[in-house]
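Researcher: Re-running this chain for the archive, since the previous output was lost when a drive failed. Same request as before.
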Amino acid sequence: MANFLLPGRAGDISRCALVGPNGSFAESSQALATLAVEKVIDGLALIGMVLYSIWILQPARWVLDVLRLAVLIFGGASFVLVVLRYRTPACINAVRRVFRWIHLSAVENKSNAFLTSFGNGLSAVGSSQQMLALILITTAIWMSEATLIWGLAKALSLAVTLKGSIVASAILGLGLMIPGAPGGLGTYELFGTKAFQLTGLSVSNAFALTVVIHAWVFIANIVAGVCLLTVKGITLAQLKGRVGPETSSRVQPYG
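Model: Regenerated structure tokens:
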């Protein structure tokens, strides 16, 4: 819900602060590690879906450019997470030497605590079986998104196949990972319109379908978020207080 109300996907950071009972720096750092794993797996699943779109369609050049950029970003992120997962002490020592070399001893101590907690968070994924399960669950989630898109297109009597919906879902997912306005306003419409044009829709129909999907997702997330906050007994005022300047300073060790 916060990602639809705040710019720059700030809801992801808010989640890290809220997931622990007291929002401490160590808890937030560990939650940030699981968030990083989630985003990388999301990216890899979307890359697979875009590759599927290349197989069944003849996408425009910009789709290939987005795919190359995604492979570079998520491939690099995967490598970094693997190194941190299995070589945490070595990474901590390397970072400390760098900060010591540039005479930032205060940041050196903070980076040590942050990387230690971050590495502990990564240990939650301890086996290839767990990774496989996470990838399968993530793929199922994105396939449900594609099914939703396909259903809304059918409701508007637009000729979008399930395969085309998978393509659109993947491109929309990659586009939404770019930090932007609250709810991805503008970014969502740009990538959505371009994606549906690949499936054969006209510009006007592609834009109209994108707006309908965006509105549906926005309302669903806000309603679900408010209901879940109510179940937890948290008001919006309390939420703002918990994710305030003090919490932000705990989440961001270099701030």
